[in-house]
Design goal:
The chain is α+β, with helices and mostly antiparallel strands. About 50% of the residues lie in helices and about 15% in strands. A 7-stranded mixed beta sheet has the order 2-4-3-1-5-6-7, sandwiched between helices.
């Protein structure tokens, strides 16, 4: 045992640490999803192979060994959404290299007031809405699914977009910089299995976009007039307007790039 410990080198410890970190992040990524249940099922299938040296099970072993010959391809197909999320997270641009949402204009507080005012009216009238704020992760793929606008953010425009029978009311709007880049955008739905049943497609879409990016998404419930926000794959229900206003300003307000760590700490504290 001592000889084994003496043979361990720094690169071995680093190798173990990296592999452990990858496994941990993968399990955290698929927790509370159907993929986690599938992975558990795969481990159940491996049990007969593990006990086969002591208890021969020729028929089962033959079937399982042939199944595992195509196992890698099967895993890629099964976990394609999780792999896509992981690659998207790895591909996030840093805040230093990416643009600051509010770095290009000076009326940032006024824009936030316009959004909060619109949310207040939408909630009171129980008009469903999703507003997504692009941060350092580019959302161009989702912007392309909607109607291009490149419009100034105003209360009246937001209300007009989301009020039926507007043709744009079903999708999300994406705000980048000081502009509404597109409306009626299609967002990815989360596949979390632990959400309450009354959380519909809007809420699942708001969570979904926050899972694969660092965007902040705000959703207004059509049934209850409740305002929630999603950040880092988590949903925070029934929020007050002043809380949302402070949150948007703290995350997106203009600041020197070297203070981006403060933004990250703020995000973590909101959990």
């Amino acid at each position: 045992m001592l000889d084994l410990i003496r043979d361990i080198k720094i690169n071995d410890l680093l190798d173990i640490f990296i592999v452990s970190l990858l496994i941990y992040n993968f399990l955290r990524l698929i927790s509370n999803t159907r993929a986690f249940q599938i992975l558990a099922g795969i481990f159940v299938l491996i049990i007969p192979l593990a006990i086969s040296p002591w208890y021969p099970l020729p028929t089962i072993n033959w079937i399982l060994r042939h199944l595992f010959q195509i196992g890698i391809l099967s895993l890629i197909i099964i976990f394609q959404s999780e792999i896509r999320k992981a690659l998207a997270q790895l591909g996030q641009t840093s805040s230093f290299m990416g643009h600051r949402m509010s770095a290009f204009y000076s009326d940032f507080p006024k824009m936030v007031d316009e959004i909060i005012s619109a949310l207040n009216i939408l909630a009171k009238n129980k008009i469903g809405a999703i507003i997504v704020f692009e941060h350092s992760t580019g959302l161009q793929n989702f912007i392309d699914t909607g109607l291009p606008m490149d419009s100034k953010v105003t209360r009246d425009l937001l209300i007009t977009i989301f009020t039926p029978p507007s043709l744009l009311h079903d999708g999300a709007i994406i705000i980048s910089g000081s502009r509404i880049k597109a409306a009626s955008c299609v967002l990815p739905l989360t596949d979390r299995s632990d959400l309450q049943l009354h959380l519909g497609t809007r809420h699942r879409a708001a969570i979904g976009i926050s899972e694969i990016s660092d965007a902040l998404s705000i959703v207004v419930s059509e049934e209850r007039g409740e305002i929630s926000y999603c950040l880092n794959g988590k949903i925070y229900r029934n929020q007050e307007l002043d809380v949302l206003s402070r949150l948007i300003k703290r995350i997106y307000a203009p600041r020197p790039w070297w203070k981006d760590k403060i933004v990250y700490k703020i995000k973590r504290q909101e959990k």
